[in-house]
Amino acid sequence: MTHPEKAEDLTGSFLPQEYVHRHIEDICVRTNQAALIVGPRQAGKSTMVWHLLRQYTPDILFLNMEDPLLRAGKIHPIDLVEHIQGTYPFIKAIFIDEIQHMEEAGLFVKGLVDARLNVPVWVTGSSSFDLLSKTRESLAGRATRRRLLPFSMTELIQHANAPNPLAKRRICEQVVSHQLIFGSYPAIYLCADIEEKITILNDLVDALILRDASDLFKIKRVDAFRRLLPLLAGQIGNLVNLSELASICNVDVGTISAYIELLSEGHIVERIQPFAGGKRREITGTPKIFFIDNGIRNQLLNNFSQDLDLRTDRGQLLENWVFTEIHKTLPLQSSLKFWRSKAKAEVDFVIEHANSVYALEVKFTSLARPKLSRSAWSFVSAYKPEKFAVLNMTLEQTVQLRDIMVDFITPNSLHQWLAGIFRL
Question: What CATH number has the domain bearing residue 135?
């Protein structure tokens, strides 16, 4: 503000050379309202906000709550409002970054919004555990919340802007190959060197999980927390046995449950519950756990082998990747579950959206002809889903089997199948 001739360079320093459009950029932030952008560290929250705020340069008030001086100052919203009105009455936007470091963050943002400064307030937080738990009530009607996760396949394909279908298919293959092994965090995806990707992932896991565990969440048994992480990484797609995990980590079941809750709130893992449609022979209480990003999962197991044919966990990699892509595009009012009967018939993913049911089976195999498994037929017969898809490695075809249309899709076409459901 004091050197407007340098403002463009300053805001530009927060932006990467290559910017990827994010699907939540159309968020509507009205005057005298806050926009809360939550998600894991380094998912691109600050980058996206700076991209959107460039139109207000140089009249932006930026508060980075990682600054120890700001945290030590214990800023009160009334004092800040008076300072803005007296010294910066011309500002056009307020941006508060990393607000999870601030005590009573929700009350602070509420105070800014209620002061009616006639400017939009943008807020980012790397952990919904601290931010949303303190804002859920105090910001009702005063804020719009959005979650930003690592790049989705749709975002990356749109960014590539392929000139023809053949080029688009090649780009899809490259995107999937990268996401399966190294994930989709912006700094890692946009980095060209494989060794550097691994180094960034190592640093990211240290900051994302272990540093937050000891500093932000004040976990006492950090050793048990560290032991739990690779155990979860190795059990993707399996029913979670809390008692077994507690025994291995030498803590009680309640502690394991609390650790998983923290990982979920920190956007590291996500629990999905079983789909219970009222049938008596269904699993109804035991969840599964998936990682939000394959790269984080592979780092915890220290396995970055790109030869999928030699990886014994290739099925888990594919299933976790499918989960991440559904999770990134799933509307807030919709739900993602799995289905399993007590006789062990299973369908990997069940989506409930707009009062309809959609199901997806994931198979790391090459199909020569369209066919459904016995488990799939059991689900189809019981619930008559709006759509049923089988994701495999080769077959792309829509056929009618008995009285249902079944979509056979590959990883390359998953984003198109999801777009058809969510009208993306």
Answer: 3.40.50.300
